[in-house]
Amino acid sequence: MDAVRDGNDAAYMTLFERHRASLYGYALRMTRRPEVADDVFQETFLRVHRARTTWASHQGSFRSWLFRIATNTIRDRARQAARRPEVLDDTFEPSRSTTPSDRIMLERALAQLPENLRDAFVLTAVMGMDHNEVAAALDITPDNARARVSRARTRLRELLEVS
Amino acid sequence: MTDQEFDARFGDLGPIEPPELVVRRTVAAYQTERRRGAVRVRIFAVGGMALMAALSLMVVSGPPDRGDPSTLVERGSGAVLPGVDVKVAVRHAAGTTERFATNQRYAAGDTLMFRVAATAPADLKLLREGVVLWAGHVNAGEVDLPVGYTLEAGESAARFVVEGGAESITVYVPAVAP
Predict the structure, then answer these.
(1) Which pLDDT does position B45 carry in this prediction?
(2) Are B97 and B90 within 8 A, CB to CB?
(3) Chain B contact for A65, CB < 8 A?
(4) Which of A139, B129, B138, B142 pairs as cysteine with B117 (C-beta 3.0–4.6 A)?
(5) Is A24 found in the same domain as A87?
(6) Which of A37, A91, A126 lies at the smallest CB-CB distance from B134?
(7) Do B13 and A28 touch (CB under 8 A)?
(8) Do B13 and A41 touch (CB under 8 A)?
């Protein structure tokens, strides 16, 4: 990231390649609209470039900083649209070890979570972040991150039992 | 099931690769911004001299004319639109599959499946009554879309549309100042 801050193209592209799929997965699960996720994806990486000189390692990992920018971009887009995303797309490709129907069921359950639980849970369970990283990405405390994930898990268990 | 095992189920969902076109567009936007930044630095460097020259010549230029084509921002590559053909099949709840027919009524639980053939790489969207069911990039040739639509009891007639182009063209307008 230090090289990116100095304007190194190759370093920027390395970060882009490393994080593009996880960022797109997050954007798609949070917005649930491919065309919006496309825009969020592009805008987030442009904001990373524009804000590169403000990044400092003591603020946390690059990944948490990236997802914080993404979260802000998603919130900006939601405000611009003046409404919450509503459409659930069953468009995700099958993953390695879950069957398509399992996958759709899990994605549907995720989609039913309120945004402030979904973001924390997706970052934790799907993206593999720890509570400190989630806290940095969402600009909340680690305790708050832990509580949100716990509430999300409880809600998801209920949803999956019903389905 | 422990919390760890429960989370692991979702962990299997994993990242999602963005469509190739979105990747290309993002990289292009980054490069454009990089070039613009470099130009801006040069402008600052010669800014003082240019200002002095402008003042000495007392040149006053007005705003560009409205509708001046040179002020329009071009998006997209001007690529030729691909030809797209769509075929629909119906998979019955019993597991059999047959060709779709518009003069037939289908039952709840039957699933519509879509196969497209594109003459060139294309960005496609499948919509049902204006709602996007799937969007993604396909290569030239025939491909089954990775989405089906399962009919539900009492569902009214609906129009499915496949929209496509060589690329999606996005014009992003940032938030307007209050």
Answers:
(1) 45
(2) yes
(3) no
(4) B142
(5) yes
(6) A91
(7) no
(8) no
Window from A25-29, B39-43, B155-159 with minimum mean pLDDT = B39-43
What is the spatial distance between Cα A66 and Cα A72, in angstroms, rounded to a whole number? 10
pLDDT in tens, A50-103: 888 887 766 678 899 999 999 999 988 877 765 444 433 443 333 334 555 677
Total Cβ atoms within 10 A of residue B168 = 22
Where a domain ends, among A47, A78, A93?
A93
Q: What are the b/e assignments for B9-47, b being 16+ CB within 10 Å?
A: bbbebbbbebbebbbebbbebbeeeeeeeeeeeeeeeee
What is the domain-level CATH number for residue A161? 1.10.10.10
**How high is the mean pLDDT of chain A?**
83
Q: Are residues A60 and A16 part of one domain? A: yes
Q: The domain that contains A33 carries what CATH number?
A: 1.10.1740.10
Domain region containing A82: 1-93
The helix/strand/coil state of B138 is strand
Which residue on chain B is closest to A32 by alpha carbon? B132
Considering the domain architecture, whether residues A84 and A122 belong to the same structural domain is answered as no
Number of domains chain A is built from: 2
- Chain B residues with at least one Cβ partner in A under 8 Å: 3, 6-19, 22-23, 25-27, 29-30, 33-34, 125, 131-136, 146-147, 168, 170, 172, 175
Contacts of B123 in chain A (CB under 8 A): none
Sequence-distant (≥ 6) Cβ neighbours of residue A43 within 8 angstroms: A73, B172
Please indicate if any CB of chain B lies within 8 Å of the CB of A3.
Answer: no
- Residue from the list A95, A107, A157 with its beta carbon closest to the beta carbon of B6: A157
Whether residues B18 and A41 touch (CB distance < 8 A) is answered with yes
Alpha-carbon Rg for chain A, nearest whole angstrom, is: 16
Q: Which of A93, A128, A147 is the last residue of a domain?
A: A93
